[in-house]
Amino acid sequence: MTEELVTLETAELLKEKGFSGRKYIIDVSTLPHCYKFLSVPPQSIAQKWLRETKNLHIEIPYMYGNYWIYDILTIPNHDLVGLSNRPIIHYNTYEEALEAGLQEALKLI
Prior knowledge:
The chain is α+β, with helices and mostly antiparallel strands.
Protein backbone atom coordinates (compact mmCIF):
# COMPACT_ATOMS: atom_id res chain seq x y z
CA MET A 1 0.00 0.00 0.00
CA THR A 2 1.36 3.42 -0.94
CA GLU A 3 0.27 6.89 -0.02
CA GLU A 4 -1.38 8.75 -2.90
CA LEU A 5 0.40 11.91 -4.06
CA VAL A 6 -1.61 14.94 -5.15
CA THR A 7 -1.93 15.50 -8.89
CA LEU A 8 0.18 18.15 -10.61
CA GLU A 9 -2.92 20.34 -10.90
CA THR A 10 -3.42 20.18 -7.14
CA ALA A 11 0.31 20.72 -6.54
CA GLU A 12 0.16 23.91 -8.63
CA LEU A 13 -2.83 25.16 -6.61
CA LEU A 14 -0.98 24.37 -3.37
CA LYS A 15 2.03 26.37 -4.59
CA GLU A 16 -0.22 29.34 -5.50
CA LYS A 17 -1.77 29.26 -2.02
CA GLY A 18 1.54 29.16 -0.14
CA PHE A 19 2.35 25.49 0.47
CA SER A 20 6.10 24.93 0.45
CA GLY A 21 6.86 21.43 1.62
CA ARG A 22 10.51 21.10 0.63
CA LYS A 23 10.46 17.44 1.60
CA TYR A 24 8.12 16.70 -1.32
CA ILE A 25 9.85 18.61 -4.14
CA ILE A 26 10.18 16.87 -7.51
CA ASP A 27 11.77 17.95 -10.79
CA VAL A 28 9.07 18.97 -13.28
CA SER A 29 11.42 20.72 -15.72
CA THR A 30 10.46 18.28 -18.49
CA LEU A 31 6.79 19.22 -18.16
CA PRO A 32 5.25 22.36 -19.75
CA HIS A 33 5.40 24.54 -16.62
CA CYS A 34 6.97 27.89 -15.75
CA TYR A 35 9.10 26.42 -12.95
CA LYS A 36 11.67 23.68 -12.57
CA PHE A 37 10.67 22.15 -9.24
CA LEU A 38 7.30 21.62 -7.61
CA SER A 39 6.28 20.30 -4.21
CA VAL A 40 4.03 17.25 -4.73
CA PRO A 41 3.01 16.04 -1.26
CA PRO A 42 0.86 13.08 -0.30
CA GLN A 43 -2.85 13.88 -0.19
CA SER A 44 -2.87 13.49 3.60
CA ILE A 45 -0.17 16.18 4.00
CA ALA A 46 -2.11 18.60 1.78
CA GLN A 47 -5.29 17.85 3.75
CA LYS A 48 -3.47 18.47 7.04
CA TRP A 49 -1.95 21.73 5.71
CA LEU A 50 -5.43 23.01 4.79
CA ARG A 51 -6.70 22.07 8.26
CA GLU A 52 -3.83 23.65 10.18
CA THR A 53 -3.15 26.78 8.11
CA LYS A 54 -6.46 27.61 6.42
CA ASN A 55 -8.94 26.14 8.95
CA LEU A 56 -10.62 24.02 6.28
CA HIS A 57 -11.41 20.36 6.88
CA ILE A 58 -12.15 18.04 3.96
CA GLU A 59 -14.47 15.25 4.99
CA ILE A 60 -14.86 12.16 2.78
CA PRO A 61 -18.00 10.19 3.64
CA TYR A 62 -18.76 6.78 2.17
CA MET A 63 -22.30 6.62 0.85
CA TYR A 64 -24.76 3.78 0.59
CA GLY A 65 -24.61 2.76 -3.05
CA ASN A 66 -20.84 2.22 -3.03
CA TYR A 67 -19.48 5.69 -3.73
CA TRP A 68 -17.67 8.55 -1.98
CA ILE A 69 -18.33 12.29 -1.80
CA TYR A 70 -16.56 15.22 -0.14
CA ASP A 71 -17.61 18.09 2.08
CA ILE A 72 -15.55 21.14 3.04
CA LEU A 73 -16.05 22.38 6.60
CA THR A 74 -14.68 25.37 8.48
CA ILE A 75 -12.78 24.91 11.72
CA PRO A 76 -13.95 25.38 14.46
CA ASN A 77 -17.52 26.30 13.42
CA HIS A 78 -18.13 23.22 11.27
CA ASP A 79 -19.91 25.26 8.58
CA LEU A 80 -20.19 23.77 5.10
CA VAL A 81 -18.51 26.08 2.58
CA GLY A 82 -18.40 26.44 -1.18
CA LEU A 83 -20.72 23.58 -1.95
CA SER A 84 -24.15 25.11 -2.43
CA ASN A 85 -23.87 25.52 -6.20
CA ARG A 86 -21.94 22.39 -7.09
CA PRO A 87 -23.51 19.13 -8.21
CA ILE A 88 -22.88 16.14 -5.98
CA ILE A 89 -20.43 13.92 -7.83
CA HIS A 90 -20.07 10.25 -6.96
CA TYR A 91 -16.43 9.17 -6.76
CA ASN A 92 -15.34 5.55 -7.09
CA THR A 93 -12.56 5.81 -4.51
CA TYR A 94 -11.76 7.70 -1.34
CA GLU A 95 -8.64 9.12 -3.00
CA GLU A 96 -10.57 10.49 -6.00
CA ALA A 97 -13.02 12.24 -3.67
CA LEU A 98 -10.19 13.62 -1.52
CA GLU A 99 -8.33 14.96 -4.59
CA ALA A 100 -11.48 16.74 -5.79
CA GLY A 101 -12.06 18.12 -2.29
CA LEU A 102 -8.48 19.38 -2.06
CA GLN A 103 -8.82 21.22 -5.37
CA GLU A 104 -12.16 22.75 -4.42
CA ALA A 105 -10.89 23.88 -1.01
CA LEU A 106 -7.80 25.46 -2.58
CA LYS A 107 -9.96 27.34 -5.08
CA LEU A 108 -11.98 28.78 -2.17
CA ILE A 109 -8.91 30.36 -0.55
